[in-house]
């Protein structure tokens, strides 16, 4: 190198003229080592302006005197120059003022992740970055369920074996919003004539129900009973109503012989035949029947000469609400799957489950929500593990992300409904 050549020539001249060689023992420093120690492209004295002599130990170019290297407490905080004053980023920093500190230069763990300031905190891109959390991004997941109204009929709640009764014994009608009323029986015109041999007639009619959906039954009642001369009504194995006077003043039917007389003799003159109006609740017999179970409704009528009888059973069904569509709106998968992003906070249905990168252990659990179909056709309460999730992520430029911090377990996707 040129410098070395110059040195060798100088040493030769000194030896020729003075008979001695110069000694630099214990004096070799950056300014005579043949290296570009400060990386400015210039080597040693006298070429590098950072060298004042061959014995100068530091090739670094002299710094201008500024607030962070002048030996003064310029901002009056009791701390002087770099590195003691936190307002100084380096010796070349011209301002000691701490008011210019950012979260990434203030010596505080602002995001509580265990790392402080640039470059230790991966959320900091530089000393001037004023947010240790990195770039904050949020997303929201919302569960959406759509209902549709499916009108209930007797056929899908109850199937009926009418035992050849006329179709006008059965009817459907609306009983209000989301309610269907099914009626068995009819009032009047149920006339039977005397038996030409026995003088009396016994008529039974029955309906056998198969209960398919007991949960859809709102109520059931024996609504009205009419008769001439005597009747009894059973549902299942239970006697639900019978004439309080009794047939022939209390005689059992099995003792009746030809020539039986009109039961009106056992009554007051003003009450030759009977009629019950009211409501006998039989709901539990229907709702207590297992799906697919059977229940018999039966009326027995005894009459002398001419007579009639009827019993009205009314059953009310709840209109069905079925789920037509269930989906999740929103998407957190891109943030959750990004190694540069960490889940900072999660709130599930108002409950904070992740706070400052830490799982809280709190959970909303199953939650019910009352939903209505379009147009209000039906309403139903649906249970689900969650309905709304709000998430906040911190994203950085550090390729390692925030190691060890919890991530969203479901990747922004739906758990099974």
Per-chain topology:
Elements: H1 2-18, E1 135-150, H2 154-157, E2 158-161, E3 170-174, E4 179-184, E5 191-192, E6 200-211, E7 217-228, E8 230-235, E9 238-242, E10 274-281, H3 283-287, E11 293-304, E12 307-318, E13 320-329, H4 333-336, E14 341-348, E15 351-355, E16 358-359, E17 367-372, E18 379-384, E19 388-395
Antiparallel strand pairs: 1-13, 1-19, 2-6, 3-4, 4-12, 5-12, 6-11, 7-10, 7-12, 8-9, 8-11, 14-15, 14-19, 15-16, 17-18
Task: Characterise the protein shown here.
This protein is mainly beta and 417 residues long. It folds into 3 domains: 1-62, no CATH class; 135-148 and 324-395, no CATH class; 152-318, Sandwich (Jelly Rolls), CATH 2.60.120. Helices cover 7% and strands 35% of the residues. The chain has 4 helices and 19 strands. It has a 6-stranded antiparallel β-sheet with strand order 13-1-19-14-15-16, with no helix packed on it. β17 and β18 form a beta hairpin. The chain is rod-shaped and about 145 Å long. Residues 248-272 and 398-417 have low confidence and may be disordered.
């Amino acid at each position: 190198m040129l410098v070395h050549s110059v040195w060798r020539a100088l040493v030769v001249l000194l030896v020729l003229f003075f008979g001695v060689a110069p000694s630099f023992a214990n004096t070799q420093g950056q300014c005579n080592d043949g290296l570009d120690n400060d990386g400015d492209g210039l080597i040693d004295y006298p070429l590098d302006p950072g060298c004042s002599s061959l014995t100068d130990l530091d090739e670094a170019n002299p710094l201008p005197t500024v607030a962070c290297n002048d030996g003064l407490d310029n901002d009056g905080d009791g701390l002087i120059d770099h590195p003691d004053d936190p307002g100084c980023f380096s010796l070349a920093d011209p301002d000691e003022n701490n008011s210019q500190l950012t979260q990434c230069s203030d010596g505080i763990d602002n995001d509580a992740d265990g790392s402080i300031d640039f470059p230790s905190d991966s959320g900091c891109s530089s000393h001037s970055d004023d947010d240790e959390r990195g770039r904050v991004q949020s997303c929201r997941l919302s569960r959406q369920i759509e209902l549709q109204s499916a009108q209930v009929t007797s056929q899908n709640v109850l199937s009926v074996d009418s035992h050849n009764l006329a179709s006008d014994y059965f009817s459907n009608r609306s009983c209000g919003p989301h309610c269907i009323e099914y009626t068995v029986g009819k009032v009047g015109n149920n006339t039977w004539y005397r038996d030409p041999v026995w003088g009396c007639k016994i008529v039974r009619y029955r309906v056998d129900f198969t209960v398919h959906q007991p949960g859809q039954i709102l109520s059931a009642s024996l609504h009205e009973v009419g008769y001439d001369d005597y009747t009894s009504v059973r549902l299942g194995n239970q006697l639900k109503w019978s004439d309080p006077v009794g047939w022939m003043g209390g005689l059992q039917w099995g003792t009746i012989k030809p020539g039986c007389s009109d039961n009106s003799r056992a009554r007051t003159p003003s009450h030759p035949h009977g009629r019950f109006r009211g409501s006998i609740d039989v709901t539990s017999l229907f709702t207590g029947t297992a799906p697919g179970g059977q229940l018999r409704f039966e009326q027995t009528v005894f009459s002398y000469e001419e007579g009639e009888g009827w019993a009205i059973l009314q059953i009310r069904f709840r209109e069905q609400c079925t789920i037509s569509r269930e989906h999740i709106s929103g998407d957190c998968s891109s943030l959750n799957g990004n190694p540069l992003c960490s889940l900072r906070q999660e709130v599930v249905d108002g409950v904070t489950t992740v706070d400052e990168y830490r799982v809280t252990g709190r959970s909303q659990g199953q939650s019910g929500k009352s939903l209505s179909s379009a147009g209000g056709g039906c309403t139903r309460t649906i249970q689900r593990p969650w309905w709304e999730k709000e998430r906040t992520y911190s994203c950085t430029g550090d390729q390692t992300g925030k190691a060890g911090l919890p991530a969203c377990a479901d990747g922004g996707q739906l758990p099974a409904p």
